[in-house]
Design a protein that fits this description.
Elements: E1 3-6, H1 13-25, E2 30-31, H2 36-39, H3 44-54, E3 56-60, H4 63-70, H5 78-91, E4 102-106, H6 117-120, E5 123-126, H7 135-151, H8 161-174, H9 181-192, H10 198-202, H11 204-214, H12 217-233, H13 240-258, H14 262-278, H15 282-302, H16 305-330, H17 335-355, H18 358-374, H19 380-395, H20 399-412, H21 416-432, H22 436-453, H23 456-470, H24 481-490, H25 494-507, H26 520-529
Parallel strand pairs: 1-2, 1-3, 3-4, 4-5
Protein name: TIR domain-containing protein
InterPro entries: Toll_tir_struct_dom_sf
Length: 530
């Protein structure tokens, strides 16, 4: 089963190193922070979560470890408190200390009574790193745990050639940059043969991260469906609810939002959040609240008047809850908080577009700047923020500054969805400076990218904008200003307008010299009910 050593890097290394040396000397497979320099995991949090879930945890106590556990203000080792949250989840379905896969090691100089309640209920071993006193008892205890774990393994999850193949593919995927072609091909391979594979479910976050970096909506949808079906088909697994919550929030809610299925996206985010809250998985709960807030942002963008105000208020309330949760997990410099600040800036930009208040625009700019100070340059959230800052420049009529921002993203980003959005934003900036030809080029490229990624609503929006400026770029039939106005009046969905135009194009004989007046009511009705 293997062992994961949890300790404080501040002062626990001198205790942890002898413990790891002793255990490896007795043949145990031990994982600890010192392995990070050689393994380079794609996500340290995911690495930590997998280690705690899959292995016996040896908690090595030190003064710094105790401070981090007992105080929310101790900033030196925030990861300790995060590890404790994962350990609590591991203990969730376990009663008492017998056969518990969490063992506590206490060095000389630390009183047993000083341990927090969550550790006092476990089996505790004394170990002296200088004399190695307590070694035999610790090794005996861990071997008994390891043998017990092996004897209770369900036949459904026995290791096989398929398991090893999946693990090898996951390991290869995690060793590659998110945006690399090799990682994407491995992700597709894993999903294509992943039905019933519990190893794929456990590696969901890594595979989903690669699919999202590529912006492949269809792949995220397929991955989510496969993982949920696998969880439902097999015997109950330890940590099953945690995995399901992540799939609902980071998988289903994500692709449903891009497919413009707002009600379903909200339900998926809410269901995942409720499960995460029940098992005290604060990180997934916070992401669920943020995902729901993002859905309300999109709802507000399409609403007017009181409805828009309601959606904006709802989104800001959910975002406030998410921020508090992220702050409690990762402190004030968490990148998750940077993503929240970026989303809050989008909400305030939309409010500015409704009210025209300069204060709202200034507040949105401040939020975006706060996000920039926290997010890591070159990452996907940082590029999304640059596209947002360009939109803020457009609102503030700083057109050249905005063009510079999105042009840099288009030239450097390896994330296709962000590049497509940046082209769309640059087109708006080019239209504002009367550079119609260049703007249409950007929109045509953005539409093509969105269609390839499965973002049909975004692609249809680009198509309609092109048709508004020069319909000859997207259709062979002539569209007048009256046609365009009538289509907008009949169909709020740009996809319905596009399909109606294409249907009219299909039914209009090219040999006719005179233009027949389109029956847009009939055409819209046809495409909406086909």
């Amino acid at each position: 089963m293997g062992i994961f050593a949890s300790y404080s890097c501040s002062d626990g290394g001198k205790i942890a190193a002898p413990v790891v040396e002793v255990l490896r000397g007795h043949g145990f497979d031990v994982l600890w922070d010192a392995d990070l320099s050689s393994s380079h995991p794609m996500s340290i949090q995911a690495w930590m979560e997998n280690a705690v879930r899959e292995r016996i945890v040896v908690v090595i106590v030190s003064d710094s470890y105790l401070k981090a556990l007992l105080s929310n203000d101790f900033m030196e080792r925030l990861g300790v408190r995060y590890e404790l949250g994962l350990i609590r989840q591991k203990l969730y379905h376990h009663v008492g200390a017998d056969r518990c896969p969490v063992v506590v090691v206490v060095p000389p100089g630390i009183e047993m009574n000083s341990l927090p309640a969550v550790l006092q209920q476990l089996v505790v071993h004394r170990f002296d790193p200088s004399t190695r006193d307590g070694e035999e008892e610790l090794v005996r205890s861990l071997k008994a745990l390891e043998e017990g774990s092996c004897s209770r393994t369900s036949p459904a999850v026995q290791e096989s050639d398929d398991v090893y193949r999946t693990r090898a593919a996951l390991s290869g995927l995690q060793a590659e940059p998110l945006s690399s072609e090799k990682a994407y091909l491995l992700a597709r391979e894993l999903v294509e043969r992943g039905a019933g594979d519990f190893e794929l479910v456990r590696g969901f976050e890594s595979v989903a991260a690669v699919a999202k970096a590529r912006g492949d909506v269809r792949l995220v949808r397929r991955l989510s469906e496969v993982c949920l079906r696998t969880l439902a088909s097999g015997p109950p697994l330890r940590g099953e609810e945690e995995l399901k919550a992540k799939v609902l929030v980071a998988g289903h809610a994500w692709h449903l939002l891009r497919e413009h299925r707002f009600s379903e996206a909200t339900l998926m985010a809410q269901d995942g959040t409720h499960i995460a809250e029940k098992i005290r998985d604060l990180k997934t709960a916070a992401r669920g609240k943020r995902a729901e807030a993002r859905v309300f942002l999109h709802l507000a963008a399409e609403a007017v008047g009181y409805d828009r105000e309601y959606y904006l208020g709802k989104g800001e309330h959910l975002l406030m809850i998410a921020k508090e949760l992220f702050r409690s997990i990762g402190g004030p410099t968490s990148e998750e908080l940077g993503v929240c600040a970026s989303l809050h800036a989008e909400l305030q930009l939309l409010r500015y577009e409704s009210t025209g208040s300069p204060d709202e625009l200034a507040a949105a700019v401040r939020r975006a700047h706060a996000a920039e100070t926290v997010l890591t340059p070159g990452t996907e959230p940082y590029h999304w923020l640059a596209a947002l800052q360009a939109r803020l420049c457009l609102a503030d009529k700083k057109y050249n500054d905005g063009k510079e921002l999105v042009t840099a993203v288009i030239a450097t980003a390896d994330f296709p969805e962000v590049v497509a959005k940046s082209r769309q934003v640059r087109a708006d900036l080019l239209f504002a400076t009367r550079e119609k030809t260049a703007a249409l080029r950007d929109l045509l490229a953005a539409e093509e990218s969105y269609r390839r990624l499965g973002c049909e609503r975004a692609a249809d929006t680009c198509w309609w904008t092109i048709a508004r400026y020069d319909a000859s770029k997207v259709t062979d039939v002539r569209l007048t200003a009256a046609d365009l106005d009538r289509l907008e009046e009949l169909a709020p969905n740009p996809g319905d307008r596009r399909r109606a135009v294409l249907e009219h194009e299909l039914r209009t004989p090219r040999r006719l010299v005179r233009r027949s007046a389109p029956d847009w009511v009939c055409l819209i009705d046809r495409v909406q009910h086909d």
